[in-house]
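Subject: for your reference before the review

Hello V.,

The reviewers asked for a structural picture of the protein, and I figured it would be easier to keep everything in one thread rather than splitting it across files. Below is the amino acid sequence we used in the manuscript, unchanged from the supplementary table.
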Amino acid sequence: MTATIELACDESAAVISPIGASLVRFSVGDRPVVVPMNAFDGAVLAPWPNRIDGGRYDFAGDSYRLPITEPERGTALHGLVADVEWSVVERTESTVSLAFTLEPTAGYPFRFDLQVDFELAEAELRMRARALNTGSAPAPFGFGFHPWLSPGTAPSGTTDPVDGALVDEAQLVIPAARWYETDERLIPTAVRPFDDGTAVPADHASDDSACMVCKDFRALRLIGGTVLDDAYGSPRRGDDGWSRARLKGADLREVVVGMGPGFRTWQACTGDGLDEDLARRAIAIEPMTCPPNAFAAGEAGEDFDVVAPGDELVVEWSIALTGADDTSCFLPK
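And here is what came back from the structure prediction:
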């Protein structure tokens, strides 16, 4: 079994697995922030996040077919590096950097050097990811990250997701102007803008997982029984160019997930398809640089990045828990 990497800074702690360069756990004191759910736990998703329909896509005049890794839906899911072992290249008490060389493979004949840096501060974890094209041709590329966020502690105070609170009891903000409507295989069929002139009625009820009103989390509101495995585009950003999603737990503390300017899409998943003892015990809030099925249905350079030989794609994202002092634990550079 591959040993995990433990980071510490005052009351904050994080556990990183070299398998998938995955953020498995993050906590502040006894408050869980990121928890394992046995489903791409905090993994790096590259060179594409989410799904590619049938594993097929065209790029630069050539057609490619990726292995089908989600056979029940007939898709290529979450890239090629989530289940491989990355190498530790640098480590301190509160930081770690991991690297992996992605060699040409079936359906993706491109070569990249990948690196992900984790920096733990008090009540915040910051990530920087880099993809350097070391091949001889331009290549399509996408980054995604898959942290499962805890809705807080249950009344018993447990930090175990199996015994913890449900996401139904938490409130959510996803700052995005558009929602990706999908078919039953979660492949987008339309991109629909939210109506700025409407709000979710207090007495609204729907048993339709495709109800657009139910998917609108532009303002903080209770998740309740809403089923989410949905992508959101045109993220709303602050003056710093970052977009920030928020999960407010029943304990009134907020987990804030920030994604920098290189990201185009949010994905939210309430985990309803997981084993019964894990379903809806955490919510995945996933920053992605491209939407689902981007290589197959998107426009190169517009919906996903094309990285030229010798060039690199660099993105930054973060997870923080509000309500705690932010004392830096970074070493001087």
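For the response letter, the relevant points are probably these. DSSP finds one helix and 27 strands in the chain. The chain has one domain: 5-321.

Happy to draft the paragraph if you're swamped.

O.
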